[in-house]
Structure formats: structure tokens, C-alpha cells
Amino acid sequence: MSVTMPRVGLFVTCLVDLHRPSVGFAAIRLLERAGCQVELPRAQTCCGQPAYNSGDRRSARDLAVGIVEAFRGYDYVVAPSGSCAGMLRHHLPHLFDDDPNLRAQADAMAARTFELISFLTDVLDVSHTGAAVLGGPVTYHDACSGLREMGIKQQPRDLLKAAGATLVEMADAEVCCGFGGTFCVKYPDISVRMVSDKTRDIVATGAETVLSGDLGCLLNIAGRLRRQGHRVHARHVAEVLAGMTDDLPAIGEGRG
User: Fold this and answer.
1) Which helix (H) or strand (E) element contains residue 234?
2) Residue 20's Cα: distance from chain center in Å?
3) Widest CA span of the chain, in angstroms?
4) Can you tell me the distance from the alpha carbon of 243 to that of 134, in angstroms, rounded to the nearest whole number?
5) pLDDT in tens, 121-164
6) Cβ distance 218 to 251 under 8 Å?
7) At a CB cut-off of 8 Å and minimum separation 6, what does 172 contact?
8) 184, 198 in Cβ contact below 8 A?
9) Which of 13, 121, 222, 228 supports an S-S bond with 251, CB 3.0-4.6 Å?
10) Helix 215-227 vs helix 188-204: angle between axes, to the nearest 10 degrees?
């Protein structure tokens, strides 16, 4: 009996594309290992969240039209980011409240949209990714959108533990790191205080590495850790679960 491979359209995200393409390659590796046929629609763009959160609904809607078209026909839309996945699943359809046809298409896409780790565990029933994880203790930061919009909490922890990770929970793991997309630009003083509280809690765990599922959070946290002189590495959980850490420097660190 032949088994049909789920056809997955990978939503790469802007930050992954511009700052950490390895996260996208890790996502492809994890999805293909799980038996998916992965494709990257070339016409995909930003999810529109920066414009949406800034009140520019016209620009967000223009982007949304292209996204709906680009991901038409896929069994699933998967993003290595709870933030972008949350935008596509919960907010993008409302940009078409005045157009029943486009709203129906956006709703159909939203129903097929998942964050990467949630998709692996909750949809494909993956319990082990086959990778040997980092040897030292790690801690995990719960990104706001992934936790509150996409229900991602235990899934990455279960996969990390199944791979043999020594996971040390930080205090207030569910508290925002202060990135918040345009929030850190509009309110830099508040953002710096928030990320400083986060790095304090990370360092207090004694973990060698902090992991998360959203690159925006990790860029923010990694930058603050380095400016404070802490020797704690920051990595996207997908890279770790895909076994890509041996030849890949941590975020914000050079190969030397």
C-alpha cells in the first residue's frame, strides 16, 4: 500500500531568510525526516505582522493576498516561528472581513497552518527527531506568540528530553524578552529592562545554552548576553533537534 507524503509549504519568515537561514534548513531536515514533501513557494513574502501591528492594515492586506495565493494547494503551511504562524493562523484572515471570498480562502489556509515543533508533535506524532542534542545543560525561553497564540509549551521540551537534553527551567520562562517586533524600537528603554531581566534568569540556571522557537527573541537575547559579557549560547530549537550544532556557531557568534 502506498503512503502519500504530506505536501508542506515552508513559510521561511523574514528573520530566518535574512539573519539565520540555517533555521530554514533545519526545518526542512526535520520535516523530511518526518516523511513530508517540503516545498518553498518562491512568491512568499513577509507575513505582514510589522505592518499589522503598526496599524497599516492596507499594506498587511496587500501582503496577505500574495501569501494566500502562494500557499494555495499545500496540505499544510509550516513556519519555524510561533510569531509568524500566529499571524497567519489568527490575524491574517481578519484582513479580509470585507471580502467573503478571500476570507474563506484565508480561513482555509489558516486551518492548515502550524508552527514547526507543534506540527511535528501534534500533527505528525513525532516523539524523537533522531538527533543527539547538545551535551551541556540547556534552558528554554517560551516566546510569547508561540505560547499564547499557538499553544506551544511542552512540545519542544518533550523532544529535547527524548533526545537526551539536560533541561534546566529558568524562572519566569513565560515572560516576554522585550523584543516584540517593533516594540523594541518604539520603547527601547522598556525593552532593554525586559531583556535584562530575561538574561538574568537565563544565567541563574547555569545553562550553557538558551533555546527558543522564535528567532526574534533569540537575536534579542543573544545580543544582550554578549553585551553583558555572559558566555551563554543562544540557538533555535530546530537547529538543535535537527543535529546541526556541531558545524554551526551559535547566534551572534563567529566560527572562530
Assistant:
1) strand 233-236
2) 12
3) 60
4) 9
5) 999 999 999 887 778 999 999 999 999 999 999 999 999 999 99
6) yes
7) 197, 198, 201
8) no
9) 222
10) 80
